Amino acid sequence: MNLKIPFFILLLGAGLLLGAGGAAKAAAAEINQLYESGLKELRAGEFKAAYDHLAAAFKLNPSDPNVSFYMGRAAFEMKDYENAIMAFDRMLMLEQELPPIKFELARTYFHAGLPDQAKPYFEEAKATHPPEPVSQAIDEYLKHIDSQTRRHSFSGRLTLGVSYDDNARVSPSAGIIDVYIAPGQILPMTMTGKEREWIWNSTLEAGYVYRFDDRRFAWTTSLLQYNAFYNTAKDLDLSYTCLATGPTFEDDRQYAGLFLLGGHLERDYRTSLDLWGVSGNYNRTITPWLLWESGVKGESRDYKDDNPRHAFNLNAGTGPVLVWGDNRFSTRFGSETERLVSDQNYDYLEYDSLYALFRYERRLPYDMTAFTGCRLQESQYRDDEPGFAERRHDSVVELSLGLRRQFTEHVSAELSHTFTRAHSSVSLYEYHRNVTMLSVSYTF
Question: pTM of the full predicted structure?
Fold first, then answer.
C-alpha cells in the first residue's frame, strides 16, 4: 500500500506537467496565429481587423514588444491616437532607448493635436542620427510644430520665370474667317498669323496666420501678386493682385477656410478688371492614402476693357486625391457660371462651363519630381456671337508635362511645357498654343 501512493502521485504529477505543456503550446499557437493575422491585415490596410487580432494577442501575452508595436501602428492608422500612445508608451517602459518608437510616439502625439508633447520625442529621435528619410520627416514635423505653436507666423514664396509662347495673342488657327455683316452677306477676314513671344514673369505669394488660444483656429491672410512682361508685345503686359482674408480651422483630419477676397487686374498698365467676393475651402483626410478637396468661390466682377460690364461669377469644384508611396494623383471636377448683373447688351458673354482636372506627380531620385496634367473644359455661351450668327460652344483640352528639382530647403526650379487646343463653333475662338516655362522659386 505504501508503495502505491508515491507511484500514484508520480502519475498525477506527470499528467499535470504534460497537460500544462500542451496548454502552453496551444496558447503559443493561438498567440502566433492572432499575431500573423494582425500583421497580414495591417499590410492589407484592414486596420480595424488588425487591431482586434493584435489586441487579442496582447491579452494572451502582454509582454511581447512586437505585439504592442503593431497594435500602436494599427491604432495610429485608424486615428485612434489614445490607444496608439498607450501601446508605444508600453514599449518605452520596457526599453527606454528605442529611437524608432520615440519617433512613432512623437508623430502620434503630433497628429493627436498635442505638439508640445510631440516635440521632445522628435528631438530625442533626431539626436540618435536616424536614416536620412526619417531625419527629413522629423525636420518637417518640427517645422510644423514651430508654426503651430507660434501665435503669429509669416510665410511666402517668390517665383521668377521666363516662358516662350508660340501664340501670345491666342490667334485663331484659320487664316480666313467668315464674318456675317447682314443676312446673306458674308465678309471674309484675313487673320494675322500666330505671334511668338518671350515673357518674363514674377509671382509673389505671401501669407500671415494669427492663431487663437485654441490653436486649431486661426485668422489667415494671403496676398498674390503676379506680373508678366512681354518682350515686344508691350500692350499684353499685365499685373494681377489678389488679397484674401478670413477664419480657418485645421486639425489632423480636416481643413476648412472661409475668405473675403478682392482683386485688381491691369493690362497695358490700364485697369481691366476689379473684383471682390467670397471663397470657401474644405479638405478632409479620409484614409492615409485618400484625401478629398472641395472649394467654392463667388465673385462680383467689374470689367473695364473693350466690353465694359458688371457680372457675377460662380466656380465650384471637388475631387479626390490619391497618395501612395512616391505617387500623388489629384483630380477635380467642377463647374463655372458667369451672368451679367444687369442687361448691358453683352448676353453673348454669359456662359456655363464644366471642367475636369487631372494631375499626377512622382518623386524621383536626387530630390526631383516629375508631373503631368490634363484639363478638359466644355463651355456653352447663352447668346449668338455678334458677326457669326451662331451660339458659341468651346471644347478645350490642355496637356502639361514638367520636372521640378529641390536644390535646398528654400530653393527649387521647374521646367514645364503646356499644349492647349481649343475647338469652337465660332472659328474666331479655335486655336492651338504651346507654352514652355522655366522658373526658380524661393520659399521663406
Answer: 0.71
